[in-house]
Amino acid sequence: MPTGTSSWKRAPVILALVSFSALAQQTVEVVIQNYLYSPGEVQIKVGDTVLWVNREKRTSHSILFPAEGGLESDRIFPDESWKRTFAKPGSYPYTCGPHPEMKGVVVVTD
Q: Does the predicted model carry a pTM greater than 0.90?
């Protein structure tokens, strides 16, 4: 057998592991309606994504992370969405920029 052939035999295993980890990542949806985030708390794993969808009829909202230096999404108008992938474990409380009474939290675990 030529040198290096054994590494090619391992390539499918490595590719399968990479593919599996990509498939394992999930997207969790948070609906914005009636001036509420629903659910108000989501628990995800590192690498997962949260998708916020505005289901209001006329009102725009944003997602503002005050503890992260005021990181804020653009305004999300009715039937629009915004998403964020979380790369580090922790608790990420957020509010709506124009409606600070709206609150939610993303809890990210390893």
A: no
